[in-house]
Amino acid sequence: MTLIDQPTATGTPRQETPDADGSRAITIVDPQDGTPVGTVHSADEADVAAAVQAARQAAEGWAATAPAARGALLHALADALAARADEVAELNTRETGKPAGDARGGVDAAVGTLRQYAELGPLHRTHSLRGADVAVDYTRPEPRGVVAAITPWNDPVAVSAGLVGAALVTGNTVVHKPSERCPHVGALLGEIWSAPLPEGVLTTLTGDGRTGAALVASAGVDVVAHVGSTATGRAIAEEALRTGAHLVLENGGNDALVVDADVDPTWAAAQAALGAYANSGQICTSVERIYVHADVAEEFVAALVLEAGSRNADGMAPMVDTRMRAEVHRQVAAAQAQGARVLAGGEVPEGAGAHYPATVVVDVGGDSDLMREETFGPVAPVQVVASFTEGLDRAVASRYGLAATVLTGSLEHTTEAIRRLPVGTVKVNAVFGGAPGGAAEPRGASGQGFGYGPELLDEMTTRKVVHIGRPVLRTAG
């Protein structure tokens, strides 16, 4: 089994090279201009086994640590990250191409997430149960043991803080394997976060897909928490059938946007552009396919082309690497070959780096990869529909179930969409946003389990039912 975090295409700038001792190493280049970022060791099976063993040895002592003390240590992790926020954000931008403001925002979100779990962990409640008056019945949450946290490259700091923070504060030990696309960010997080913790409580392993495969296959791992591609999530789920590990998976999405006839088409186009082009389309809940009502389609498409042109004139941030760019362009070119028309972007620019323009594609066939699969790039494919119901029907028809958005002024259409869309998150009149602490449960090919919010504490623990009855004591004499 090999675990990779996105489909393979040609032209990868990431190179596997030997360490000084002949073992594996990973070299990363800056997707902005192709200059080297650095080389890290790629952990092998022996490294994985040692990390899992250390986590297992530390598990009993960490689980016995008072919840308030674990929460205090999580605050210490947040403090340590905040103190080096600029350094982490800058490295993230160099390694993944994430815009500087977004990269710093991800660090700030990570600090907030660690503080949230530092406070929620000690308050993680049990339940009392109604039994006999002379007995005591309740549930007791207990840590599951060793958590393998396998995190992505598109938001590596905030996602890592969520999975690692929730696991640690509930008394689990963690082996963290960051994406092979951002191993330097992962290694730096490991350095920052492991310093305040007891030995073995948090270990970070940089490495490629073989490192992840060895970690998932370990019998010493009790939970696998993974954010990444559907292909990797499926491979993890198959391995978990053998190991019995509990799974928390947030995998690929193909999020739909349905534009109703009664909304302002220029506003709708701005929402579509935000959803499709933010972070160069490399967000788990990016807008991946658009169904626009025929009554506003002409104005909507014209406004969307202007939105794309404005972003291209300002200069889009690069994609994470040329391997990912090649896959995105393959989908666009294949749609063109099937009759689709590209109205903006759609061409691989010359020069160094992994840039790809904001792209608008119309007349896209429903059976094309651009509409059926996760694209994960700055592409807005549009289909015109005759009614809101037709658009909703097409949005529902997907194997993915991460999120979806509807733009409508109709309460009837809003409630219909909320009821019918088989996704973890339904957004109405905003492609991004939501209250803090929200925890969505993806469906279908998009994963399983709660990966965020207070519910993640439940995923990281198992419940034991306790019944204490009244004893019959021995009588004297």
UniProtKB/TrEMBL annotation:
<feature type="region of interest" description="Disordered">
    <location>
        <begin position="1"/>
        <end position="25"/>
    </location>
</feature>
<feature type="compositionally biased region" description="Polar residues">
    <location>
        <begin position="1"/>
        <end position="15"/>
    </location>
</feature>
<dbReference type="InterPro" id="IPR016161">
    <property type="entry name" value="Ald_DH/histidinol_DH"/>
</dbReference>
<protein>
    <submittedName>
        <fullName>Acyl-CoA reductase</fullName>
    </submittedName>
</protein>
<dbReference type="Pfam" id="PF00171">
    <property type="entry name" value="Aldedh"/>
</dbReference>
<keyword id="KW-0560">Oxidoreductase</keyword>
<dbReference type="InterPro" id="IPR016163">
    <property type="entry name" value="Ald_DH_C"/>
</dbReference>
<dbReference type="GO" id="GO:0016620">
    <property type="term" value="F:oxidoreductase activity, acting on the aldehyde or oxo group of donors, NAD or NADP as acceptor"/>
</dbReference>
<dbReference type="InterPro" id="IPR016162">
    <property type="entry name" value="Ald_DH_N"/>
</dbReference>
<feature type="domain" description="Aldehyde dehydrogenase">
    <location>
        <begin position="23"/>
        <end position="466"/>
    </location>
</feature>
<dbReference type="InterPro" id="IPR015590">
    <property type="entry name" value="Aldehyde_DH_dom"/>
</dbReference>
